[in-house]
């Protein structure tokens, strides 16, 4: 299998993730975009690991760690989202502008 | 002797300091100190002159100098006969003026500063004449100008005094740039700033004509400015609002004559640059006639005398241009005496009448007999009546010019002839304006405007100087018979010229006769009061220089705000503007931040890729 | 072991702290402490002079490593170039602090003001004595914030937008100066990259600017110093700063702080610059001369007394920079002499301007008239200072300008002579314009008829007393030194000349 | 094949390990104390936290004298490589991190903050994050580096949101969270590309692959660029800076201080490791890019700070600008023959000085926050007169940050940085101009601080012990570094650079 | 094209298609469900690439935990605006532009950089659980330990943030 196949898939997946992050109004959906990006990364890592036949299996290891990181991020992220929901009554980042740089002369 | 000279230089400064320090607290002390200081100066000058007049070896002494790289600066004195005679002239007139001022400014609250400035001026003049170092000369030279400025504006409440003072200072200071650059160029050419060394170099080395015209010309500019010659002639008449004793001291006898002194001092330099001398001759010719003509029509007695001074100074320059060093110097001395006499006399008249306008005088000979006598002597000396001093010195000058015209050693021939013609014409005009002023002031009907005031002769303090000055005005001619006795070996022999003397005498007599006849026939109406509100040169300067400069100043002021400041304001505004713009991007919407993050990441990657 | 020069730098700083402590108790006491400090520093500067000897940096030189990471050395030295400026600084500071004793600033807080002045003095003395570029830079910056405070806190805030204008003036002073000094620092590090040292003595003896980097360093250093000096067209922070600063602030700013710029030009810009490289030196000289003429014209049109004096400083500093640009011994002599003379004369002028402003409540030249009649003594001193300022021979102002012209007529061989001759002539014409505005000033301010032109409010009719003894005490050292240096320029020219030879070689 | 589990040099890892164990201990102790003496105001958490930091710092000392490495593996080709290396660069960063953490702990000890934040969790999160930062500084492979980076970030996000009933804190937290995770994703992508292109995750391995030319160049460059993003986000370099002011303003002051110093240091050391250790062969590529980034960062930061009236926001943007200065030596690395480590020495020196001064400023801000939580500059009016113990330290910190005396430390730090940039004159000039802009806004604040107090505000502050200690610590350090700058600069610049 | 290729492209199509739906569908719950499909597709690719353990972890952790968490979050934060997320063109266009940019950059880089390199799947060591565990504990102890700190910290952080609710004033 040519190496660039999975890499291309990962690239497109990452781009879709970016799109999702930028376009979604609901914070939870933004998080889903991030998940897509992380999956693209993992795809890359696993593909490279396979291609390199890495004795250290750094690629797979890092992919596993990334999954763990993603889980941690989601866990904390959802807590933050819930916090926002409790304090603001919505979870739309675009409507959170009370800290915008406006309090100037 | 060096110590005496230094005392001579330092004493006036000390006097000035004492006078200023005492100030108003003790008027008598001030007056005493001022006169005593001047007297001491005079005594010291006499001592110095006694030692160095005539054939005695000149005194040259380095008092102090900078021990540094390049050409050293320092206080270096050089006393020769020329210094001596000018010292005598300056200190004498200064002393007389101080005495005279006791009466003239008897009730003037500004006397302390006045006396201090006169004293300071004397010191400055002494510095100029004894200086060997050109920079020392420059210090004295400009200090004189500053004193002159303050003294002209003594009556600062008068607008014309303020204007005249500023004009005098600015014009002379502009011209002084010539001296500054002249000194610098001389220093560069000769490797020294010592006059004596420069002169001995000139005597030793073959003339370097091409190399020296520039410094000579530059010095000439300064000289023309200081001595109010064309084209700088307009400041002197305007300086007349100053107190009359000041006019006598500074604007007749000494400071304006410093220009002549400088040419005389540096005469060897000018002698090797005939083109500059020729220029001087031309300017002197123009000046003497022009100034005499102005004197003939001026209404103000002091302005008549001022124009006369300009004209007479031009005589001296004419003599020096013609190579007649001693004639020029002697006429300087003679003029110093009789013009001081005339000004002090005029001061007495003004003191009595309360005005300087000739049209407001008339018939004063009975009311002011002493003054009348003094003025008569003065005018006669000015006109060159035999056997007063003016006759001898003017004759020596005209004779020298005539010789130059005949022999043609220095000047272009036609210029020499022009000079002679101008001198003769000026001699005639001099008689005419002298008689006019004399007649208008002292003869004819009494002016109706001062009938109530009962003019009277001045007090003794003012009369004594008049008498003192009458002595050299009458008897000074003897010097001409043996100038070497006074001026040393450079003075030359007998300066009398028979033919020329006869010619001038005849001219003087004829002119005098004509004037008297006219006066007999028409009285005061002969001379309608003509006032020339603005001299053409002044108009030119006003329109071509002063106004543009002032306009430029306004432009600069506006430009400072709107143009030069613009870069600062512009930078500030653009910095602020960009800051505001950037702050607009801080919308608080996190996804726009993320957009920037992603775009930034791509940009960094692309940038790095393009560099790889 | 603390050296003589370290004491000289440290004393004002120490007394500044003591003054601050004393302010807690009493302002008058604090100012007295400060005055004591200023006088002690001045006396100690004489000690330092006598200990330093005449040749080179003498016995008082201190040189030890401070921060090895930066090649930064604690290197202080006194020679003929720094010495006169140090003495001048201490004298002016005595006068400035002394003046606070009887004329406290309008906003109060005389003690703190005095402490700030002493801090400035410490920084300035350190700069003059520093023989390491970064050390110079550090000391250079010491004076910055205190001066900013002086303007911002005690500045004149009369008028409708007074406070805003004052802030603007203070901030502009700060930003301009820091921009300049930061660029100068960049120039220093470029030199460091080339020469491997920040030591001024080593640079003077062995550094040869080379290539575009060398030129860039020279340009940057020139820029930084030009802001401080200030050189046209970077001067625009100056008039506002002066017009708003309190009297002592203006005095210190003009007499002392500007000298940091000119001193830098002499001390290290000369060794860091190759006069033959590019047109840098002629351009700087040209700016200096434009500044001379421009400042004179600006003075002619000025309507505020302090602003006029401020612009006149621009002109005088133009002479100094022109002198430096000749790269000759005479030029260096001229620059140092003119710097010292300007310090004395302009210091005096600002004191006088402050007094006039205090008596009349305004510095508006359109309203001030006839000082001769009202306050003759003050007017007399003004006339004296004005004459000194216009470069009257026999007073201190003359020699610097004369030597500048002399140097410009025969610049270093690498420089275009004809250009410099033209510059010299134009500079000399600037002297005439200078005379013109000084005379115009005297004519209206001193001699003008009271209230003739402009409608004069009644407060101008009662100006208060003529010069009082405390003011005379402040002015007289400056007057005396102005006369002394005018009469005996050799006092200064001789030591400066020796140091100058070390700097630019014989010629 | 070696033993089943890698051998560990416990002294090398003592510092991060202490922090991690301390974190757990704090959590437990607080929970225990909370149950035993419910409602008691005195809780052991802050003290234990502080003690942990001190002990961790103590472990760092022997390591500075004797650098060591652990978690090593033997590759089939080449020498042993280690995941964890505590060299002097690392220990220097540890020092900054630990100093910063200690000050932040003290800042968190205000009564108001203690009421609104659960102190056990606060200590736990802080120490976890610090453990991550110390590990990051010691990590020598990309896997550890990325994980450590996350350990720095996630607790910090929780800390930002950790204030009860404050919608602004929640807003700040979610913003920081989103930017953080996206940056992390980008970084991970970069790491994956680097791994793919070089076949290595160990920094030395990457360096070797780049040096021998076995790597695909374009991919390496792209991977490096993307890797840098997550680190640059932590450093708050432009264009990854936009979260800064929102987060700092919304977060508790102590957390803002933490983000501006400790988190920034972590990002910075990450950059040093990836670029300096992993990609020294590509210095000609990354140095110019970072030069541009540095120039943009300081300029944008300063321009944004220029007219701020809000103290924390001003400090936020100023910290961005300062990050730009810190990055300047990166931009000049490799120019005119200077070594990369010389440049990093300069950056670290600046970082250290910045940390001290910036924490000093934040300490006083935290104090003022106890009374004026709107944090406008006018709230500082007359502070020096009213509360000299706070006003003057703030004034000192501000002049130091501006880089003018008496803040000699700040001044010399700027000299160090500009000196390091002498190979790239344009960057030095940009920095010089920025210093001037910076001074303009520090001066505006300074003006408020030192102006005479109005009588209305004459009452003094009630200074909590922790804040007092924090102010004292930072002031002492700042003054000490100003008086004896060589004490700080010589080791950092000379030892690291040489 | 071998069967591997066919399977890969099939999985790729499924993955990308569902990913597109994740980011475009307006229904929140549908988005989460499409995410499950995407993650499954990716897991399939892992299996293809001989990363067996990673694939199982992917399914267990992601599909089993993360997506459930996300669904819970969606339920808990059901905003009054309803379950729909329809961004306007002002959001879509820049986002699409940037996403395209990213896609082009990445795709061109990897395709150009790894053109001609292929994965020898036959020689690949299958990443079984045993194999991977050994690697981790032999080689990657440090990041693993650090990761444990991370997970603990995230856990505590999440808990403390959620618990704040009860103590609100």
Q: Which series of helices and strands of chain D comes N to C?
A: HHEEHHHHHHHHHHHHHHHHHH
Largest sheet of chain A: none
Tell me the span between the first and last alpha carbons of chain A: 61 Å
The H-and-E topology of chain A, N to C, reads as HHH
Give your account of this protein's structure.
With 105 residues, chain A is mostly helical. In chain A, 73% of the residues lie in helices and 0% in strands. Chain A contains three helices and no strands. Chain A has helices spanning 4-23, 27-52, 58-88. The longest helix of chain A has 31 residues, at 58-88. Chain A starts with a helix and ends in a 17-residue tail after the last helix. With 612 residues, chain B is mainly alpha-helical. Chain B has 24 helices and two strands. In chain B, strand 1 and strand 2 form a beta hairpin. In chain B, helix 14 (301-321) packs parallel to helix 17 and helix 16 runs antiparallel to helix 18 (413-442). In chain B, 59% of the residues are buried. Helix content of chain D is 74%, strand content 3%. Chain D has 20 helices and two strands. Chain D is globular. Chain D starts with 13 loop residues before the first helix and ends with a helix. In chain E, helix 1 (3-24) packs antiparallel against helix 2 (28-48). The model of chain E has no long low-confidence stretch (mean pLDDT 85).
Secondary structure elements and pairings:
The complex is a heteropentamer of chains A (105), B (612), C (507), D (498) and E (169).
Chain A (H helix, E strand, L loop, with lengths): L3 H20 L3 H26 L5 H31 L17
Helix pairs in contact in A: 1-2, 2-3
Chain B lengths: L1 H21 L4 H26 L6 E7 L8 E6 L1 H24 L6 H20 L3 H19 L6 H32 L4 H10 L4 H18 L8 H4 L5 H10 L1 H11 L1 H5 L2 H24 L3 H21 L3 H29 L15 H15 L5 H19 L5 H30 L17 H16 L2 H4 L1 H5 L10 H25 L13 H50 L4 H22 L1
Antiparallel strand pairs in B: 1-2
Helix pairs in contact in B: 1-2, 1-4, 2-3, 2-4, 3-4, 3-10, 3-15, 3-19, 4-5, 5-6, 5-10, 6-8, 8-11, 8-13, 10-15, 11-14, 11-15, 13-14, 13-18, 14-15, 14-17, 14-18, 15-16, 15-17, 15-19, 16-18, 16-19, 17-18, 17-22, 18-22
Chain D lengths: L13 H23 L8 H21 L2 E7 L5 E7 L1 H20 L3 H6 L2 H20 L3 H20 L5 H32 L4 H10 L4 H19 L7 H8 L2 H26 L4 H23 L5 H22 L7 H30 L13 H4 L1 H15 L5 H13 L4 H26 L14 H19 L1 H13 L1
Antiparallel strand pairs in D: 1-2
Helix pairs in contact in D: 1-2, 1-5, 2-3, 2-5, 3-5, 3-11, 3-14, 3-19, 5-6, 5-11, 6-7, 6-11, 7-9, 7-10, 8-11, 9-11, 10-13, 11-13, 11-14, 12-13, 12-18, 13-14, 13-17, 13-18, 14-16, 14-17, 14-19, 14-20, 16-17, 16-18, 16-19, 17-19, 19-20
């Amino acid at each position: 299998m040519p190496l660039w196949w999975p890499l291309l898939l990962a690239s497109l997946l990452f781009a879709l993730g970016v799109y999702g992050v930028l376009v979604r109004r609901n914070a939870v959906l933004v998080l889903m975009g991030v998940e897509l990006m992380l999956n693209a990364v993992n795809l890359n890592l696993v593909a490279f690991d396979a291609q390199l036949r890495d004795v250290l299996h750094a690629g797979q290891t890092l992919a596993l760690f990334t999954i763990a990181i993603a889980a941690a991020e989601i866990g904390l992220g959802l807590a933050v989202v819930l916090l926002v929901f409790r304090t603001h009554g919505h979870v739309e980042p675009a409507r959170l502008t009370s800290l915008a740089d406006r309090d100037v002369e | 002797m060096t110590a005496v000279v230094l005392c001579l230089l330092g004493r006036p400064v000390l006097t000035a300091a004492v006078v200023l320090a005492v100030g108003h607290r003790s008027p008598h002390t001030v007056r005493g100190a001022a006169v005593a200081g001047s007297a001491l100066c005079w005594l010291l000058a006499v001592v110095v002159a006694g030692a160095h007049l005539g054939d005695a070896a000149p005194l040259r002494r380095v008092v102090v100098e900078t021990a540094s790289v390049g050409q050293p600066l320092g206080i270096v004195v050089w006393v020769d006969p020329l210094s001596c005679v000018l010292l005598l002239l300056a200190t004498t007139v200064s002393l007389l003026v101080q005495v005279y001022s006791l009466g003239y400014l008897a009730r003037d609250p500004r006397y302390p500063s006045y006396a201090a400035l006169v004293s300071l001026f004397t010191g400055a003049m002494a510095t100029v004449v004894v200086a060997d170092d050109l920079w020392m000369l420059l210090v004295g030279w400009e200090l004189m100008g500053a004193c002159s400025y303050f003294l002209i504006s003594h009556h600062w409440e008068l607008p014309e005094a303020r204007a005249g003072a500023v004009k005098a200072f600015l014009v002379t200071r502009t011209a002084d740039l010539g001296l500054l650059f002249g000194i610098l160029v001389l220093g560069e050419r000769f490797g020294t700033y010592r006059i004596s060394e420069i002169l001995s170099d000139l005597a030793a080395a073959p003339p370097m004509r091409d190399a020296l015209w520039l410094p000579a010309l530059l010095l000439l500019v300064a000289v023309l400015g200081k001595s109010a010659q064309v084209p700088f002639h307009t400041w002197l008449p305007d300086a007349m609002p100053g107190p009359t004793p000041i006019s006598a001291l500074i604007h007749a006898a000494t400071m304006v004559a410093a220009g002549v002194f400088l040419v005389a001092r540096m005469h060897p330099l000018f002698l090797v640059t005939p083109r500059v001398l020729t220029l001087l001759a031309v300017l002197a010719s123009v000046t003497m006639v022009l100034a005499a003509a102005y004197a003939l029509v001026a209404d103000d007695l002091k302005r008549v005398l001022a124009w006369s001074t300009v004209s007479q100074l031009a005589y001296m320059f004419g003599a020096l241009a013609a190579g007649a060093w001693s004639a020029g110097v002697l006429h300087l001395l003679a003029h110093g005496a009789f013009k001081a006499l005339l000004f002090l006399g005029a001061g007495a008249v003004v003191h009595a009448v309360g005005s300087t306008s000739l049209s407001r005088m008339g018939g004063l000979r009975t009311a002011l007999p002493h003054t009348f006598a003094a003025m008569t002597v003065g005018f006669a000396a000015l006109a060159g009546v035999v056997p007063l001093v003016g006759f001898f010195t003017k004759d020596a000058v005209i004779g020298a010019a005539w010789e130059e015209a005949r022999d043609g050693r220095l000047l272009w021939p036609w210029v020499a002839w022009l000079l002679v013609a101008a001198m003769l014409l000026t001699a005639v005009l001099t008689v005419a304006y002298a008689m006019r002023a004399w007649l208008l002031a002292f003869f004819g009907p009494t002016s109706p405007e001062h009938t109530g005031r009962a003019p009277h002769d001045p007090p003794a303090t003012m009369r004594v100087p008049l008498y003192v000055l009458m002595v050299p005005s009458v008897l000074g001619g003897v010097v001409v018979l043996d100038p070497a006795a006074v001026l040393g070996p450079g003075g030359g022999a007998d300066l009398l010229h028979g033919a020329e003397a006869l010619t001038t005498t005849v001219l003087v007599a004829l002119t005098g006769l004509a004037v008297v006849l006219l006066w007999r026939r028409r009285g005061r109406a002969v001379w309608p009061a003509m006032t020339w509100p603005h001299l053409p040169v002044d108009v030119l300067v006003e329109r071509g220089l002063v106004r543009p400069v002032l306009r430029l100043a306004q432009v600069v002021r506006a430009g400072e705000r709107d143009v030069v400041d613009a870069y600062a304001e512009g930078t500030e505004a653009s910095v602020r503007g960009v800051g505001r713009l950037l702050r607009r991007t801080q919308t608080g919407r996190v996804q726009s931040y993320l957009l920037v993050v992603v775009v930034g990441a791509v940009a960094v990657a692309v940038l790095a890729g393009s560099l790889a | 072991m603390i050296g003589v020069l370290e004491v000289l730098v440290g004393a004002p700083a120490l007394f500044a702290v003591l003054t601050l402590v004393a302010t807690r108790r009493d302002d008058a006491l604090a100012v007295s402490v400060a005055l004591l400090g200023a006088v002690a520093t001045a006396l100690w500067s004489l000690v330092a002079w006598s200990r330093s000897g005449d040749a080179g940096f003498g016995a008082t030189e201190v040189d030890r490593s401070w921060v090895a990471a930066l090649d930064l050395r604690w290197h202080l030295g006194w020679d003929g170039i720094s010495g006169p400026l140090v003495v001048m600084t201490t004298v002016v500071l005595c006068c400035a602090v002394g003046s606070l004793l009887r004329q406290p600033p309008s906003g109060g807080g005389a003690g703190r003001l005095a402490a700030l002045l002493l801090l400035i003095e410490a920084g300035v003395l350190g700069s003059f004595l520093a023989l390491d570029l970064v050390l110079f830079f550090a000391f250079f910056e010491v004076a910055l914030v205190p001066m900013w405070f002086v303007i911002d806190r005690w500045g004149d805030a009369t008028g409708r937008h007074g406070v805003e204008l004052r802030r603007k003036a203070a901030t502009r002073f700060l930003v301009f100066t820091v921009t300049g000094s930061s660029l100068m620092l960049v120039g220093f590090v470029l030199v460091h990259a080339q020469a491997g040292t920040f030591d001024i003595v080593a640079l003077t003896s062995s550094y040869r600017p080379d290539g575009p980097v060398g030129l860039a360093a020279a340009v940057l250093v020139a820029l930084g110093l030009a802001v401080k000096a200030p050189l046209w067209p970077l001067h625009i922070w100056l008039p506002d700063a002066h017009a708003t600063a309190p009297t002592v602030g203006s005095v210190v700013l003009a007499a002392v702080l500007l000298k940091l710029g000119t001193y830098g030009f002499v001390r290290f810009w000369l060794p860091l610059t190759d006069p033959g490289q590019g047109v840098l030196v002629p351009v700087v000289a040209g700016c200096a001369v434009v500044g001379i003429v421009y400042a004179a014209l600006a003075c002619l049109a000025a309507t505020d007394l302090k602003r006029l004096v401020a612009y006149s400083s621009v002109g005088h500093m133009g002479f100094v920079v022109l002198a430096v640009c000749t790269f000759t011994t005479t030029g260096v002599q001229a620059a140092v002499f003119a710097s010292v003379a300007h310090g004395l004369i302009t210091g005096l002028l600002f004191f006088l301007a402050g007094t006039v402003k205090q008596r009349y409540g305004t510095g508006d030249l359109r309203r001030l008239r006839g000082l001769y009649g009202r306050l003759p003594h003050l007017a007399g001193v003004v006339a004296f200072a004005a004459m000194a300022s216009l470069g009257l021979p026999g007073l201190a102002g003359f020699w610097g300008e004369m030597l500048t012209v002399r140097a410009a007529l025969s610049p270093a061989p690498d420089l275009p002579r004809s250009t410099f001759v033209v510059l010299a002539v134009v500079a000399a014409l600037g002297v005439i314009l200078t005379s013109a505005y000084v005379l115009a000033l005297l004519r209206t301010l001193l001699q003008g008829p009271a209230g003739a032109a402009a409608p004069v409010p009644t407060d101008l009719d009662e100006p208060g007393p003529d010069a009082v003894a405390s003011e005379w005490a402040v002015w007289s050292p400056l007057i005396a030194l102005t006369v002394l240096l005018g009469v005996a320029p050799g006092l200064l020219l001789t030591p400066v000349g020796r140091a100058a030879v070390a700097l630019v070689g014989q010629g | 094949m070696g033993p089943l589990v890698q051998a560990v040099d416990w002294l090398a890892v003592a510092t991060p390990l202490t922090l991690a164990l301390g974190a757990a201990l704090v959590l437990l102790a607080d929970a225990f104390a909370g149950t035993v003496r419910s409602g008691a105001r005195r809780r052991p958490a802050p003290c234990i936290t502080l003690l942990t930091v001190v002990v961790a710092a103590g472990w760092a000392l022997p390591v500075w004298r004797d650098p060591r490495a652990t978690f090593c593996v033997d590759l089939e080709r080449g020498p042993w490589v280690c995941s964890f290396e505590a060299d002097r660069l690392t220990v220097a960063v540890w020092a900054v991190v630990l100093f910063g953490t200690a000050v932040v702990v003290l800042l968190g000890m205000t009564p108001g903050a203690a009421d609104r934040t659960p102190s056990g969790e606060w200590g736990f999160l802080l120490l976890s994050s610090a453990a991550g930062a110390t590990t990051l500084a010691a990590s020598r492979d990309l896997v550890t580096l990325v994980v450590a980076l996350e350990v720095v970030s996630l607790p910090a996000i929780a800390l930002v949101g950790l204030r009860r009933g404050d919608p602004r804190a929640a807003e700040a937290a979610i913003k920081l969270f989103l930017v953080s995770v996206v940056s992390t994703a980008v970084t991970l992508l970069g790491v994956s590309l680097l791994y793919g292109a070089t076949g290595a995750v160990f920094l030395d391995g990457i360096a070797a692959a780049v040096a021998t030319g076995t790597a695909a160049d374009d991919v390496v460059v792209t991977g490096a660029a993307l890797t840098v993003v997550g680190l640059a986000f932590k450093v708050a370099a432009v264009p990854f800076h936009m979260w800064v002011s929102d987060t700092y303003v919304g977060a508790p002051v102590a957390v803002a201080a933490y983000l501006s110093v400790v988190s920034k240091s972590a990002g910075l050391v990450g950059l040093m490791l990836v670029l300096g250790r992993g990609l020294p062969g590509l210095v000609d590529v990354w140095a110019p890019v970072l030069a541009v980034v540095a120039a943009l960062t300081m300029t944008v930061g300063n321009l944004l700070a220029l007219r701020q009236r809000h103290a924390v926001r001003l400090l936020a943007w100023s910290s961005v600008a300062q990050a730009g200065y810190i990055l300047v030596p990166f931009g000049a690395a490799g120019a005119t023959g200077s070594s990369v480590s010389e440049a990093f020495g300069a950056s670290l020196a600046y970082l250290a000085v910045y940390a001290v001064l910036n924490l000093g400023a934040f300490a006083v801000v935290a104090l003022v926050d106890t009374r004026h939580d709107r944090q406008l500059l006018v709230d500082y009016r007359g502070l020096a007169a009213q509360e000299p113990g706070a006003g003057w330290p703030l004034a000192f910190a501000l002049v130091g940050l501006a880089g003018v005396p008496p803040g000699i430390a700040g001044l010399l730090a700027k000299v160090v940085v500009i000196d390091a940039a002498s190979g790239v004159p344009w960057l030095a000039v940009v920095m010089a101009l920025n210093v001037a802009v910076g001074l303009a806004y520090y001066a505006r604040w300074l003006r408020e601080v030192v102006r005479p107090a109005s009588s209305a505000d004459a009452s003094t502050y009630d200074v909590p012990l922790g804040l007092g200690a924090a102010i004292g610590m930072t002031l002492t350090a700042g003054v000490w570094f100003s008086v004896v700058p060589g004490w700080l600069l010589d080791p950092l610049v000379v030892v690291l650079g040489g | 094209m071998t069967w591997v290729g066919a399977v890969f492209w099939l999985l790729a199509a499924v993955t990308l298609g569902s990913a597109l739906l994740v980011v475009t569908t307006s229904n929140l719950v549908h988005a989460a469900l499409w995410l499950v499909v995407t993650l499954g597709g990716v897991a399939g690719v892992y299996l293809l690439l001989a990363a067996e353990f990673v694939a199982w972890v992917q399914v267990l952790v992601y599909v089993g935990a993360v997506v459930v968490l996300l669904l819970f979050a969606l339920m808990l934060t059901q905003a009054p605006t309803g379950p729909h997320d329809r961004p306007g063109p002002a959001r879509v266009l820049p986002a699409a532009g940037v996403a395209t940019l990213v896609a082009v950059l990445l795709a061109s880089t990897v395709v150009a950089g790894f053109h001609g390199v292929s994965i020898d799947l036959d020689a690949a060591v299958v990443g079984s659980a045993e194999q991977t565990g050994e690697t981790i504990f032999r080689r990657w102890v440090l990041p693993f330990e650090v990761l444990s700190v991370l997970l603990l910290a995230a856990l505590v952080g999440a808990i403390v943030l959620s618990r704040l609710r009860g103590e609100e004033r």
